[in-house]
Amino acid sequence: MKLKKIFFFALAMMAGQIAWGQNTIVEDFQSSTLNQPGQQYPQVNSQGYARFKIKAPKASSVRVSLGLGGSGGTLLTKGADGFFIGTTAGPMDEGFHYYHLSIDGGIFNDPGALNFYGSTRWESGIEIPAHDRDFYALKNVPHGNVQQILFPSKSTNSQRRAFVYTPPGYEKNTAKKYPVLYLQHGWGEDETAWSNQGHANLIMDNLIAEGNTIPFLIVMTYGMTNELKWGHMKDFKIDGFQKVLVDELIPYIDAHFRTVADRGHRAMAGLSMGGMETHAITLNNPDVFSYYALLSGGVYTPEELKGKTKPALIFISCGSREKPDGVKGAVAQLKKAGYNAVSYISQNTAHEFLTWRRSLHELAPMLFQNN
């Protein structure tokens, strides 16, 4: 009996050690790649945990709220030196995350991190290195340019802004004309999102260098979505932005850049709210766009496409932690109805930029292949 007790005690100790090992945080933290110059915090370790350190000697409470809109989060502990420090309760999803600080009830950005426009405000950002990050890495390859343009909008009585990605060689090969992808951001973001948070330009540079995509322009503009409060998406009206995009921006781009100005060389895509915009605008303007892509932004049905000019491609994607069955089911129905439809599911991601980076990486090589 004594030997049995010793044996079972040893098993219990081993099980406890294994469980403890699984929850142990590896102390190999390094500064986030999105930190302000010279700032050590926030930090990220090899498991995906994030650690924050904030100097607030007169504060009584500091909490880090992570994610678009930022709720819950990590409560930091105050030290005798006036610094609050804390580590996330578990590893975070790979990729980019917005966050802000709640200090005694007030909302502030982390002075150690760079800021990115999201949640209708400039938020702090942190990057959890992804295992497949090579496809959006800054490499020693020919690079395109992202330039700001200002275009007149009579419908809004204003000068509006857009960013245009031109592929490597655009400035030198002045006889060549290019297709165009109009790429929309999500709710609470603006026209800087796809370049800053999404690395769309680096994704394209790498694909072009590998010979895996046809070079094309990407146009990114403000989708007039930030006036809507969260939870009121059903109140969104497409008319205003549709007029800006179709009647004002597209003609401006065709007049000022070397584009192939026809339906067969024009695509529209958007993430989340931008997907909702893409869905409505492409259905309303089937003779303007030939390639449609919704990234975590709903689905198309054969019924709503029936009787309209047939798109060359319908691409629908989401993260595996969103509603992948809905995406797969919608694409199966589209294929059955005779449409060239493709689904893509980003593994182990939710409604976040790694889902959309991966989606663009999958989508780009499929665009304009018929040409």
Corresponding CATH architecture of the largest domain: 3-Layer(aba) Sandwich
CATH topology name of the largest domain, in short, is Rossmann fold
The overall number of domains is 2
| Number of DSSP-assigned strands | 19
**Helical proportion?**
25-40%
Rounded Rg: 24 Å
Structural class: alpha+beta
The quaternary structure here is: single chain
Strand order in the largest sheet:
12-13-15-14-16-17-18-19
DSSP strand (E) fraction? 25-35%
Largest sheet: 8 strands, mixed
The CATH C-level name of the largest domain is Alpha Beta
The average pLDDT is: 91
Walk me through the structure.
The chain has about 375 residues and is an alpha+beta fold. The chain has two domains: about 30-130, Immunoglobulin-like, CATH 2.60.40.10; about 135-365, Alpha/Beta hydrolase fold, catalytic domain (Rossmann fold), CATH 3.40.50. Helices cover about 25% and strands about 25% of the residues. It has eight helices and 19 strands. The protein has helices at about 1-25, 195, 200-210, 240-255, 275-285, 300-305, 325-335, 355-365; strands at about 30, 45, 50-55, 60-65, 75, 75-80, 85, 95-105, 105-110, 115-120, 120-130, 145-155, 160-165, 180-185, 215-220, 265-270, 290-295, 315-320, 340-345. The strands form three sheets. The chain has an eight-stranded mixed sheet, with helices on both faces. Strands 4, 5, 8, 9, 10 and 11 form a six-stranded antiparallel sheet that branches. It has a five-stranded antiparallel sheet with strand order 1-2-3-7-6, with no helix packed on it. It is globular and about 70 Å long. It starts with a helix and ends in an 8-residue tail after the last helix. The model is unreliable at about 1-20 (pLDDT under 50).
